[in-house]
Structure formats: structure tokens, C-alpha cells
Design brief:
123 residues, seven-stranded mixed sheet, four-stranded antiparallel sheet, 46% strand, globular
């Protein structure tokens, strides 16, 4: 399984970005998620989505970020609006191999496959 993120970049506060994550070789009917890690901070779960489209968000991004997935294309997305300087971080997508309970889906230790990350900088 290989996950490849794209779509990061630099944007002014209030702007938008759309991240994509192409998952090759991934055929598990489980959760995928987006995480981020800022320098000196722990990796933070932002949003996750089940195979059948149920979505969950951390309070820090609720109402601003939208997660979606296209199972036919094996691609995960994160639409990020109203970006703030505190959103600056490396953003990672992740995919689980086994089934998860919804309350687990923002925990990074529940994911088996990770992308290399894409940098988002908000000024």
C-alpha cells in the first residue's frame, strides 16, 4: 500500500486549499483519515471517514474542513477553508487495515499506512 499526498502549499489566512491522497494497493473497507503535525507538537487527528462515508472531525477544524473519499479512484480528499496561521503543519493521510470504532478513528495509533506528508503554510 502506498499513500501519496498532494495539494499543500502556502496560502494567506482566510484562504483555502484542497489536499488529495492517492492510495495505491489499498483494498480494505476501513477508515481513512487526515492528520497534521506542527514543529514541536504531537501528531493531531483532524478528520476521518469510514468506507461508507461517515465523517468525523476534531473540534479544531469542524466547520472549516471537509473530508471526502472516492472509493472508485482510491482517493481521499480534505477541503480546507478559512485557514488560519495555526493550521500551519505537515499534513498526512492515513489508512487503516482493520475495522475501527468511530471513537477510535482520530487516533493515529489505529492506522497502518501513512503518506509522506504535504506541507501547508498559512500566513
Amino acid at each position: 500500500v502506498q499513500l501519496v499526498e498532494s495539494g499543500g502549499g502556502s496560502v494567506q489566512a482566510g484562504g483555502s486549499l484542497r489536499l488529495s491522497c492517492e492510495a495505491s494497493g489499498y483494498s480494505y473497507n476501513s477508515y481513512m483519515g487526515w492528520f497534521r503535525q506542527a514543529p514541536g507538537k504531537e501528531r493531531e487527528g483532524l478528520s476521518c471517514i469510514s468506507w461508507d462515508g461517515r465523517t468525523y472531525y476534531a473540534d479544531s477544524v469542524k466547520g472549516r474542513f471537509t473530508i471526502s473519499r472516492d472509493n472508485a479512484k482510491n482517493t481521499l480528499y480534505l477541503q480546507m477553508n478559512s485557514l488560519k496561521p495555526e493550521d500551519t503543519a505537515m499534513y498526512y493521510c492515513a489508512a487503516a487495515r482493520q475495522g475501527l470504532y468511530s471513537f477510535q478513528c482520530l487516533r493515529n495509533d489505529k492506522y497502518d499506512f501513512w503518506g509522506q506528508g504535504t506541507q501547508v503554510t498559512v500566513s
